[in-house]
Amino acid sequence: MVDRYEDGHRVRREVLGSEHVDKALQSQTDLDEPFQRLITESAWGTVWASPGISYRERSMLTLALLAATGNFDEIPMHIRATANTGASKSDVIEVFQHVAIYAGVPRANHALKLAKQTFQEMDEV
């Protein structure tokens, strides 16, 4: 029997890093616990845990979808995750070029701006 919640925690730590996950868990309250359980089980324990494609590919898809749908708040977190997923800076540029053509230049431009800032912060550490 697969425990999606436990798998989700494991995968989330592998992708986002233990520091990020620990910080998220420390800030969790009774109010958002059901939501956190949902994303841990579904996003991390089902989708990201699936053996169908690699973390690198999932990372690239996630960045493209976030940018294409204008969900920019999570782009820096997923840029930082590239250090764990194997998606390179070059991969990220390719992703946002696709976004520019298929979802619009303004969204890709903003996503690239966030990526540049986040990569710069990562390089400074």
Automatic annotation (TrEMBL):
Known SUPFAM superfamilies for this protein?
AhpD-like
Spell out the protein name for this chain. 4-carboxymuconolactone decarboxylase
One GO MF term: peroxiredoxin activity
Q: Which domain of life is it from?
A: Bacteria
Which InterPro entries does the record match to this protein?
A: 4CMD/NDH-1_regulator, AhpD-like, CMD-like, Decarb_PcaC
All copies of the Carboxymuconolactone decarboxylase-like domain together span: 35-116
Pfam families given for it?
Answer: CMD
